[in-house]
Amino acid sequence: MSPTVFRDSGYRFFFFSREENRMHVHILSGDGEAKFWLEPEIELAKNYNYSRKSLKEIESLVEVHYHELISAWEKHFSS
Question: 3-state DSSP helix/strand/coil percent for the chain, to nearest 5?
Answer without folding.
Answer: 35, 35, 35
